[in-house]
Amino acid sequence: MSLSSKNDKLLDAIEAGLKPNTGAAAEKKRTLPSSGHAPGTAVGMMVGSANDTLRSKLAESEARAQSLADDLAHAQAVADEKARELAEAKVVLFLDPARVRRSRYADRHPNAFVDRDFKELCDEIKSTGGNEESAKVRPVKGDSDFDYELASGHRRHAACLALGLRLKAECHDYTDEELLKQMRLENSGRKDLSAFEVGRHYAGLLADKLFNSGRDLAAKLDVAQSVVQRLLKFAELPEEVIAAFPDPREIRIEWVERLAASWHNDRARVETEIAGLAGQAGLRAATIYARITGRQSRNKVITREGAVLGRIRMVHGCPAVVLYKDAPEKLLARIQELVVNWRDDEDGSGS
Q: For 115-119, which contacts have Cβ atoms below 8 Å and span 24 or more sequence positions?
């Protein structure tokens, strides 16, 4: 019960006790000598007036208390919003890259730090006097050699380290899971990170017991489970097969099963093939794949009167005819006719 309600009941009780009696008791009192006064009525009026005043003051006090409570709630809401903004604020630092270590969860292949794209990145950072897009780091504790650990921006860090420039970075107090999620978010917007790198990265996280399973990894890093399971196939490739490719980032996801199967089913032949590949420079990844799997390239150029109309090439491990825009419609129609009538031709009954 509120204070106002309790006071109302108390004052009502006082008033009731001071009001003139009615009924038999009242008739008996009327027979008594009168003093000529009406003290009960006067006191009741005084109490009623005081009661009204008290109720008015109580109402004012309650309104004031409610106003103060509303002001306090508003102030708390403002304080909470400021605290949230402060927690989410980006603290940008300019760090000595030598005091920043690579993450042990880094997903880049070593070739990513020596290829043409990296050299172009170095030239760009040199021309601007530093990396314009901030890397992301977290503080390091218990390591006297480093103050921060990279969450993203490993190539930017390597470029600044090579150029002797400060590394522009945002500092966040990431947990391991948050760091991995940040790394994945940045990777999703990068076209140059290969399926090989992502797949081997995921396999490494599972090998380090950071996730219970591919399903667990997919859920916690917000990646489709089907994508994770497909990329994890890169973990099936033997290191000897990977080493046969000058740049493993060029290994396509659709090659993995055939490469692994060739190694397990015909290892002696594959080892001989890999040994022969070691002395040949400049081979395309597709050529190496064909040599290891025993599926020699069947690429052919379709020409007529010196004009290239299309090619016959392997697409996802299957031969395909790819016609260029300038190829005449008659050629397409003829190819369709040949495909439709192929069995008749084999039987010798076609026209």
A: 115/247, 117/192, 118/155, 118/158, 118/159
> How many Cβ atoms are within 10 Å of 193's Cβ, its own excluded?
18
How confident is the model over 240-258, as pLDDT tens digits?
999 999 999 999 999 999 9
Residue 300 phi/psi, 5-degree rounding, is: -135, 145
39-61 burial string, b = 16+ CB within 10 Å, else e?
eeeeebeebeeebeeeeeeeeee
Question: Could you tell me if 55 and 8 are in contact, meaning their C-beta atoms sit under 8 angstroms apart?
Answer: yes
The helix (H) or strand (E) run that includes residue 116 is helix 116-128
pLDDT, one tens digit per residue, over 199-239 is 999 999 999 898 999 999 999 988 899 999 999 999 999 99
Q: Are strands 167-171 and 307-315 parallel, antiparallel or unpaired?
A: unpaired
pLDDT of residue 186 exceeding 70 = yes
Full-model pTM: 0.51
pLDDT of residue 89: 60
Residue 234 in tokens: 């890169």
**Amino acid at the residue 151:** A
List residues bridging with 303 in a β-sheet. 308
Sketch out the chain's domains with CATH numbers: 89-190 (3.90.1530.10), 300-343 (no CATH)
| 134 backbone dihedrals φ, ψ, rounded to 5° | -65, 140
- Tell me the residue ranges of DSSP E strands in 48-142: 91-95, 100-101, 135-139
Adjacency order of strands within the sheet including 307-315: 300-304, 307-315, 318-323
Higher pLDDT, 168 or 111: 168
